[in-house]
Amino acid sequence: MENRMTEKKDHSEYFERLKAAHVAALWTIPGTLAEEPTLDEVPHVWKAKEIFPLLHEAVDVVDLGDDADRRALNASNPKRVFGTSHNLVAGYQLVLPGETAPAHRHTPSAIRLLLEGSGHTTVDGEPVLMEPGDLVLTPPMTWHDHRHEGDTPMIWLDGLDVPFVRGQHAQFAEEYPNEALQDLTEAEDVSVARYGAGMIPAERTWTKNHSPLNKYPYKTSKESLLRFHESEGRPSTGSSMEYVNPITGGPVIPTITCFLSVQEAGTKSRAYRHTPSKVFCVLEGSGYSIINGERYDWEKHDFFVVPSWHWYEHHANEGEDAVLFSMSDRPIYEPFGLLREQTADAVPAAKN
Ligand code: GTQ
Ligand code: FE2
């Protein structure tokens, strides 16, 4: 009798014909039914001490306005051609005293976290004053330009959803007429006046799907975080608060949610892992994070990426409490049932 088990036919000619017909045999693609995500990103720290000098060197390389709309260095994950994670890109941007970056708008959203100096970003006609630690939003298709009248260089952290938007084939951008700064049609920080105190105007005129606040001032955010931390009995595992759209309680931008966390000197956080990716930026203090069992040191103004589904925990060094800002692509996961989150007391030992 014929032994069907040991009989080996050569099917290579069949597979050639599948290829020519642009179909793939599901039983040969293991990733389709993979039990855990396959990643094209790794943890990495971008050090202010290394990148700020490179950013200052860019002054000799590009003239703002003439050669380039923006003088920014975007962080590419070591495992990717573009993108700090698969959905987010972070980087540093520099504007010198007296310089302007012309107005434009685009479908990708951006958040800015001011690190050094001060100046203005105008968002849809509203001049927003940026000071250290302030979170400033430029939501999808809002006109924005940057200008700086102060006397020291202004550097901030950019955070955008460009990899996600490009992946959806939804990237569009346009220049403001004459590559100029936009007209100022609103008073300075008017969105903070209208929406910045846990109240909203009784007459509800806001209809957009992003936060009506263009700025979350650091003074308010940090005070709020520290009061919360105090009210919880100053847990040694630290405290975190999420920035919200004051109308919906949802994320500040449809694709990006932001957090501010405090970790007291000499203490460590709980461990977390989740499907969304996260970029952390150090506003105060220094320390290190354990990400999937490896140690990543950080200090003031460094930023680092925690890829999807990686266990991580933060340790603040002795001497100064650490304040970490973070942004996450979590809002992209939630509507599709893709959000998975776990916590533990400590990062589990790495699997062999
Ligand atoms: O400041 O408008 O890092 O449009 C990338 C794209 C900054 C900006 C970036 C941008 C901007
Ligand atoms: Fe932009």
TrEMBL record:
Gene3D superfamilies, per the entry: Jelly Rolls
Q: Which UniProt keywords apply?
A: Dioxygenase, Oxidoreductase
Q: Name one GO molecular function term.
A: dioxygenase activity
The protein's matches in PANTHER family, at most eight in alphabetical order, are given as: 1,2-DIOXYGENASE PROTEIN-RELATED, CUPIN
Keyword Oxidoreductase present in the record's keywords: the answer is yes
Listed name of the protein = Cupin type-2 domain-containing protein
- Cupin type-2 domain location is 93-158, 264-326
Could you tell me which Pfam families the record lists for this protein? Cupin_2
